[in-house]
Write a structure and sequence with these properties.
Helix content: 25-40%
Number of domains: 4
Distance between the termini: 54 Å
CATH superfamily of the largest domain: ATPase, nucleotide binding domain
Strand content: 25-35%
CATH class of the largest domain: Alpha Beta
Largest sheet: 6 strands, mixed
């Protein structure tokens, strides 16, 4: 160990882990409580001191307004998080967690630790990666690299199987996100072929299914809506998590919460027995949602299901027996538990850290390649649209990479061009994620089509993007490093779509009632304890307004029905 020690951190939705290379192998680091796993929770206690981990999680039941959990699902949004009556950005809360990690890691290793490799879901976009890096910086870390979680898990496996030649599918279902990655390992090389995923699918969604079922059962039996009682919802959340865990080892679980509500002045208990079959029925749709990303990585990689040699299960949520069973049915291959689902990502991040710092020798280390998970491009004109997405880097291209393309001026005597950068899979940039923009000036004044601008995208190992434009005839250049921190709350920047323009849409009147109802529901403070429900409702409302602006009536009607169903809960 020395002043250049680099650690690996798995900053998860539910838990956080850290590891370091010792004697050429990963070693999990213990927190102040002597535990490897630290709950990803931050709170303000009765003495108005900031607490972390188990202490914060323990107080959530009694002080939900002073406690923050599951912040990872907010990374990349403009949503403010309230704790102790004060507003924070997701980046600030994440930085608090990472500061806590830096403190217990430094104590464990008996040296000041300031360098780290931090894992992120493979399907995190540029904004989410940038915010993760920024959180690390605010915590006092130099973030040496961002590594995709499934890639880290594969690295943890591969370091002990150097001579193996195989196709490995990493199925990573964590607390808040889902990733699937297809890798090829050969001759000491670990090559990522394709990645896909769902950043809004994880163990917490399985919990939410149980919570909603219990709310419906209690409403049916007692005529009481528990969603209006913040304390009751916190208790339900706690019991749903416990129920899910217990059903991994037994056929049924009794959820018993005394004094959850009052009826006619008398206390009422919630008493429900949840069987494995009921749980699987409630969550079947969530399990099936994992199939589409699997299909994407198989198609993009050109690997057939029969050619998969090993399926690695990563993430605590893969402990649910139905996950293994579903995968075996879908891919006709039994999944492997060759890595610890809780530790593999942190171990893999530490291996990457060891390679960077030199504590793992070249002969003992894998050569690793990765891919970008999203298509990247710019807005251009086409014969049919002013909002066409011209692709510069297709998804699942090996990184680091540099790609370029040339474009002609579109107007006579055009003095400048605005380069708008987007990320997404649609031909229409309006349906993609806006990353940033810049102006290239001093274009020679000539008729349309007679001047060319070359646009270059450079994508590095951290998934960070730099865009450069050059006027071909003069060599004049302009560039931008996409720093999405500029788009955080308080910056004054607008969302990619000004959804308030829905009021001017031709069909606005038809949907006004449901929009207002949804907006009133979202203002309900009790929703602070239903983060997944709140997030789903916000997303559906946003999409409805976008559909109205785009005059997509069929889509708007589908979303209206979806929102009405949600408002029934």
């Amino acid at each position: 160990m020395g002043k250049n020690t680099i650690i690996g951190i798995d900053l998860g939705t539910s838990t956080t882990e850290a590891a370091v290379i010792r004697n050429g192998k990963p070693e999990m680091i213990l927190n102040f409580s002597g535990q490897v796993i630290t709950p990803s929770a931050v709170g303000i206690d009765a003495d108005r001191q900031i607490v972390f981990g188990e202490k914060a999680k323990a107080q959530y039941l009694l002080a939900p307004k002073d406690t923050v959990i599951e912040v990872k699902r907010k990374i990349g949004t403009k949503e403010m998080i309230y704790m102790g009556g004060k507003a924070y950005t997701p980046t600030e809360i994440s930085a608090m967690l990472l500061s806590h990690v830096r403190e217990f890691v430094s104590e464990y290793l008996k040296e000041e630790i300031t360098r780290a490799v931090i894992s992120v879901p493979a399907y995190f976009d540029d904004l989410q990666r940038q915010e993760t890096v920024e959180a690390g910086k605010q915590a006092g870390f130099t973030v040496e690299r961002i590594i995709n979680e499934p890639t880290a898990a594969a690295l943890s496996y591969g370091i002990g199987h150097m001579e193996e030649e195989s196709h490995i599918l990493v199925y990573d279902l964590g607390g808040g996100t889902f990733d699937v990655t297809l890798l090829e390992m050969f001759g000491g090389v670990l090559e990522v072929k394709a990645s896909s995923g769902d950043n809004k699918l994880g163990g917490k969604d399985f919990d939410e299914c149980l919570i909603r079922w219990m709310v419906r059962q209690f409403r049916s039996k007692e005529g009481i809506d528990l969603e209006k009682d913040m304390a009751a919802m916190v208790k339900l959340k706690e019991q749903a998590e416990l129920c899910k865990r217990e059903l991994s080892a037994q056929d049924s679980y009794r959820v018993m919460i005394p004094f959850i509500a009052k009826k006619d002045g008398e206390p009422v208990a919630l008493d429900e027995t949840v069987t494995v079959s009921l749980f699987e029925e409630l969550t079947r749709e969530l399990v099936e949602r994992t199939h589409a990303p699997i299909d994407v990585v198989l198609a993009d990689s050109g690997v057939l299901p029969a050619e998969i040699d090993r399926i690695l299960l990563v993430g605590g949520s893969t402990r649910m027996p139905m996950i293994s069973r579903d995968l075996e049915n879908y891919l006709k291959k039994e999944p492997s538990r060759a890595v610890n689902p809780d530790y593999a990502v942190a171990e893999g991040a530490s291996i990457q850290a060891g390679i960077i710092e030199g504590s793992i020798s070249g002969e003992d280390s894998l050569v690793m390649t990765d891919v970008n998970p999203y298509t990247l491009g710019i807005r251009t004109l086409s014969d049919f649209s002013m909002n066409y997405m011209s692709v510069i880097i297709p998804r699942n291209v090996t990184i680091p990479t540099v790609r370029k393309d040339s474009f002609c001026t579109s107007a006579d005597y055009q003095p400048e061009a605005k380069i708008e950068v987007y990320q997404g899979e649609s031909d229409d940039v309006r349906k993609n994620h806006f990353l940033g923009e810049f102006i290239i000036s001093e274009i020679p004044l000539k008729p349309a089509g007679e001047e060319k601008v070359e646009v270059e995208f450079a994508y590095d190992l951290n998934g960070m993007l730099e865009v450069r434009a050059q006027i071909v005839s003069t060599g004049e250049e302009a560039s931008v490093a996409i720093n999405m921190m500029e788009h955080l709350p308080g910056s004054g920047d607008e969302e990619k779509v000004d959804v308030e323009k829905w009021k001017e849409a031709p069909h606005a009147k038809q949907f006004r009632t449901v929009i207002r109802r949804a907006e009133r529901r979202l203002k309900n403070e009790e929703l602070q304890d239903m983060p997944l429900y709140k997030e789903d409702l916000e997303d559906a409302l946003y999409e409805l307004k976008c559909a109205l602006i785009e005059e997509d009536l069929e889509r708007a009607e589908d979303l209206e029905e979806e929102i009405l169903d949600m408002l029934e809960y």
